[in-house]
Amino acid sequence: MSWWFPKLRLSLPEARRLLPGAITALVVACLMQLKIFDPLELLLLRSLTLTRGEIPWDDRIVLVTVDDETLAQLGHFPISRANYTRLLQQLTAAEAGVVALDILLTEPSQDDSQLAEAMQQQGRVVLAQAWSPQGIPLIPISLLSQSALLSGHIRHLIDSDGVTRRVELFYQGTPAFGVAIAQVYSFIAELVNIPDRSMIWVNWPGSVANLSSYSLVDVINGDVPLSAFRDKIVLVGVTATGVDAVLTPFDQTLPANGVHLHAAVVHNLLNESWLRHPSSLWIGLFLVVCGPWLSWALSDRTLQFS
Q1: pLDDT band at 13, cuts 50/70/90?
Q2: Alpha carbon of 78 to those of 87, 103, 223: distances in Å?
Q3: Is 17 or 93 the better-scoring residue by pLDDT?
Q4: How many C-beta atoms lie closer than 10 Å to residue 198's C-beta?
Q5: Could you tell me if 232 and 291 lie in one domain?
Q6: Are 228 and 96 in contact (CB under 8 A)?
Q7: Which residues 6+ apart lie within 8 Å of 228 measured at CB?
C-alpha cells in the first residue's frame, strides 16, 4: 500500500513518519480556535512593542485636557459647558483644523445655544457617542448633534492583560471616534485611508507623556499661544486622576486616558501604522505545511548526549 502525491510516492511506513507532526499541527490549530494561546500572544506583543521602543507621536495631533489643574480652578467634573464654548472660540481664532470633543453631552444645559453657535463657527467639530451598560445609546443632544460635522463612538475593548489595544472601526453603524476625526480631516487636508475591516489593533507610539498636550484652563485663559493649534487635529478630553483610565504598553504605573487612545487611533490612521494581525487561515496553512514536514525531517534523527 502506498500514498501518492504529485511526483512523490510514499510507502505506508514513510507516510507514518508524517503523522506526529500532522497530529500536533491539528491539536495546535484546535487550541488556537479555543484562544488558549491568547495570553501568550498578548505577552509577546507587549514585549515586542517595548523592545521596539518609543516613536514620535504625529505632530499634527494636539490634546487639550480637563486635567487636575483645570478641575482645581473650574470645579468638579463635569465642568460648565461655557468653558468649552470659550475653548472653541479660542481654537477658531487659532484656525485649528479639526476639534474633537471626547465629552458626553447627553443632557441639556442652559449654555447649549452658545456652544452650538461656537461649534458652527468652527465648522469641523466631532462629538462623542457611547452606550449605557444596558445598551441604550448615549448620544449628544439634538442641538449640538446638528452643529457638529460628525459623531464617533468611544467604546473601549480591554484585553486580558488589561491593555487597551483594539478598536472597533464601526459599531452599530457609528464610526469610532478616531475614524470620525480622520474622516473630517480628510475634508480639509490629505485623504486618510480607513482600513476595510471590523477592527484594528492599535500600535501605541509611546508614552502619552510625549504627546503634545495643554491644560484646558491654560488655553481658555490665553496662556497658550494660538499658533500651537493652527491646522492641528485638537482632541479635547478628560485626563484628571481616576477618570477614564486606560493602560498602554508604555503607561502602566500612571495610566493613560480614553482621549489618549483616540489620539493613538488617529496617529495610526494618519500613518497607516496599525498592527497587522496574521489571519487564522494563513496560520492554519503554515501549521498544515510545516507540521508534517518537521515530523518527516526529524523522524530519522537521534539525540546524542556528550
Answers
A1: low
A2: 15, 9, 22
A3: 93
A4: 9
A5: no
A6: no
A7: 62, 94, 212, 214
Residues 66 and 33 in one domain: no
pLDDT > 50? residue 3: no
- The bridge status of strand 245-246 relative to strand 164-168 is unpaired
pLDDT, tens only, 122-161? 999 999 999 998 989 999 999 999 999 999 999 989 998 8
In a domain, 303, yes or no: no
Residue-number span of the structural domain to which 15 is assigned: 2-51+279-298
Q: Are residues 267 and 286 in the same domain?
A: no
Query: What's the pLDDT at 294?
Result: 55
Which residues on adjacent β-strands are paired with residue 256?
Answer: 246
Residue 290, pLDDT score: 60
The answer to whether position 34 is within a domain reads yes
- Look up the pTM and report it: 0.81
How far the first Cα of the chain sits from its last, in Å, is 40
Quick one: 259 and 199 in the same domain? yes
Q: Is residue 306 part of a domain?
A: no
88, 190: one domain: yes
Q: Are 114 and 187 within one domain? A: yes
160 and 119 co-located in one domain: yes
Q: Is residue 187 part of a domain?
A: yes
**Residue of higher predicted confidence among 105 and 6:** 105
- What share of the chain in percent tops pLDDT 70? 77
User: Number of structural domains, the chain?
Assistant: 2
